[in-house]
Amino acid sequence: MLTFSLRPILIKLAYAAAPVTPTTLLFLRMMISLPFFLVIGWWLRRQEPPLTPRDWAGVAGLGFLGYYLASFLDFIGLQFVGAGTGRLILFLYPTLVLVLSFIFLRKRPTLTQLAALVLTYFGIALVLSNQVGATPEGELFILGVLLVFASAFCYAAYLVAGSQLVKRVGSMRFTAYSMAVATAPAVVQFFAIDGAGALELPPAVWLYAAILGTLSTVVPVFLQAEALRRIGATEFALIGAISPVSVAVMSAAGLDEPFGVRQAAGAALVIFGVLLVSLKRS
């Protein structure tokens, strides 16, 4: 989760370095990470049983939903909200995971999980309470919030469905195949909207995109897939609360985003909620 925390900061830095669009930045991220996933997928092709048509359909659908659509909505939303704020909004996905897990997997949330959610969401409310206004900037902020929330919903659906599919397919192969599949719509979208001329970017953007596609994409998605296999979607989502806290701190240090007493109090509540879940598992 900590490597994933770098993603919104790198995106904001890229936006600040040059007028790059979310479509182009997502294209760069996916294309830079694609060779790693193709190599790993090729390496695993004969080490595990072949996928059934149903498995292929699941991999394709979840790759589109969790890696393409969720990322694209997040990239757009981060144009209007800060990196730290965006992660805190995205952290609403544990609520959606709990609801979807209850509806489709018949998993009832425990009292500890509910208590952790109450604490963490109250902490999120503290951070967001002074950032919504009636000004044009406030309206754009709300748009960004809605886009990031839509990303959170896509990500929650991916976690719930992926936690079941990864048990049949295998965490490494599931990640490699789904990421490779998710690259296709990003490529089509880029050439349909921006075109090759949009790649004339300063070196700083290419550097941020390279880090985004490797350290903040390849490494964490494999760790995430293995975590899903070992602990399931619900516990993964709750323990992942450390991500928005780390982003808020790093954004304050590197992007000069606000992180005052109110934000610190909210972050403390999020951390305490994570500890409730972690200590319960221990």
Please give a structural write-up.
By secondary structure, this protein is an all-alpha fold. The chain has one domain. It is built from eleven helices and no strands. The protein has helices at residues 2-17, 22-44, 53-77, 83-90, 93-105, 111-128, 136-169, 171-193, 203-239, 242-254, 261-281. α4 (83-90) packs antiparallel against α10 and α7 (136-169) packs antiparallel against α8. It is globular, with a radius of gyration of 19 Å. The two termini are 19 Å apart. The model has no long low-confidence stretch (mean pLDDT 80).
Largest sheet: none
The total count of helices amounts to 11
Q: What would you report as the Rg, rounded to the nearest angstrom?
A: 19 Å
What's the mean pLDDT score? Answer: 80
Globally, the shape reads globular
Share in β-strands: under 5%
* Helix-and-strand structural type: mainly alpha
What is the count of β-strands?
0
Tally of distinct domains:
1
Q: Determine the N-to-C terminus distance.
A: 19 Å
Low-pLDDT regions: none
H and E order: HHHHHHHHHHH
| Residues in helices, as a percent range | over 70%
